Amino acid sequence: MSRYTIIFRGFAILMFSLWLSLQIYALIVQRKGDSPLPPLFGNFPAIRAHLERDTEDGDFSFAVVGDTKSIGTFEKIVEHLRRTPISFAVLLGDCSSGGSEEHHRYFRSECAEEYALSVPVFYVVGNHDVNPVKFPFERFEEMYGPSIFKFEYRKCLFIVLRILDAPYSNKESMDFLEELSQTDLRKYRYKFVFMHIPPPVSPFIKARQYKESAQLEAMFDKMGIDYVFAGDFHGYAESRKPKTTYIITGGGGSNLRKVPANQFHHAVVCRVAENSIDKRIIYVPETKYFEDRLEKFAIISFYPWMQKNVYLLIATDVLCILCIIALMKSVTIKKKENK
User: Fold this and answer.
1) What residues pair up with 108 in beta bridges, in sequence order?
2) Whose C-alpha in 86, 178, 193, 290 is 20 to 30 A from the C-alpha of 277?
3) Is the peptide bond before 85 cis (omega within 30 degrees of 0)?
4) For 248, how many CA atoms within 13 A lie in the half-sphere containing its CB?
5) This prediction's pTM
6) Are 38 and 121 in contact (CB under 8 A)?
7) Strand ranges (DSSP E) for the chain?
8) Tens digits of per-residue pLDDT, 287-335?
9) For residue range 7-27, what is the model confidence (pLDDT) as tens digits?
10) Domain segments of the chain as ranges
11) What does the alpha-carbon distance between residue 47 and residue 145 come to, in Å, rounded to a whole number?
């Protein structure tokens, strides 16, 4: 038997084995997509109540991270947040790399362990998190809780909105704000808003367009909102309007924008005191894990393909097994002949 024949047969056996191993891996890892979310992850009333039961008046901190879809970078951010004393965290949307069941199964598989925190984590809906057909708002809210809500914590008001561009409507968010503006907001020390797509408040970034942007800014001014946190722009920008500071923070893991230059992956931690609000930025380098890349491929692409092509898969597997057996037998026979 020539050396080239041995190499070819060895390579063929290796490829067939890898093909079968990939299927087994996909069958095992896809089950992580069924993992329950961490107990304090999501926007459900019980999670908000966890904070509202706190009757203390002292200082506190919270974290904000936007556009976290990645295969390693956001994990690094979470590692830092676990070591940081915070009361809760807010994800500003685009945490899933696509608006489909498969993409959210991968995100949930990461939430179960890699993204888990011991404090409440709220999830603002982003344009990549939903799809009018494959993953509508109703499905998002079924999985993660309401996409428009508010909660109170230590005499501060926190408002989460669903602000997206076409084809989505922002009417529900605007109605929610209008109703809220009729209440007594003077009782709060500070008022914060979280949403995905910011209005065009900074000349340094290109914001998506939606018709309610000017109305939204006017409403924030009317309500005396102190800080608005938004994502969508993959980087960092800050703008001060007459009454409101806008912080655009979308550096949680997605590919960074090239304009303006020198953008970076990060999270923002805000410390709220009696007479001040301070913030610091947690910087992390871009990180890509092969394990996460493989897991993402298996859950989002390969396992769904397996489900749609069962008969082809069975035929291919049988052929692979027969070929491996035949190749191994031929090698054994040749060895006996050489003896």
Assistant:
1) none
2) 178
3) no
4) 23
5) 0.90
6) yes
7) 60-65, 88-91, 121-123, 149-153, 156-160, 191-195, 227-230, 236-240, 245-249, 265-272, 277-284
8) 999 999 999 999 999 999 999 998 998 888 888 788 777 777 765 555 5
9) 667 777 788 888 888 999 999
10) 3-30+309-338, 39-291
11) 10
Those residues with Cβ within 8 angstroms of residue 318's Cβ, 6 or more apart along the chain or in another chain:
none
Architecture field, domain 39-291: 4-Layer Sandwich (3.60)
Angle at 23 (CA atoms; ends 17, 26), nearest 5 degrees: 135
Distance between CA 33 and CA 38 in Å, rounded?
13
Q: Which residues contact 233 (CB under 8 A, 6 or more apart)?
A: 198, 205, 206, 207, 248, 250, 257
8-state DSSP, 37: P
Report yes or no: 93 and 124 within 8 Å, Cβ to Cβ. yes
The residue among 64, 75, 145 whose CA lies nearest residue 107 is 75
The token pair at 59 is: 């200082």
Q: Give the C-alpha separation, 283 to 15, whole Å.
A: 41
Token pair listed for 19:
């093909």
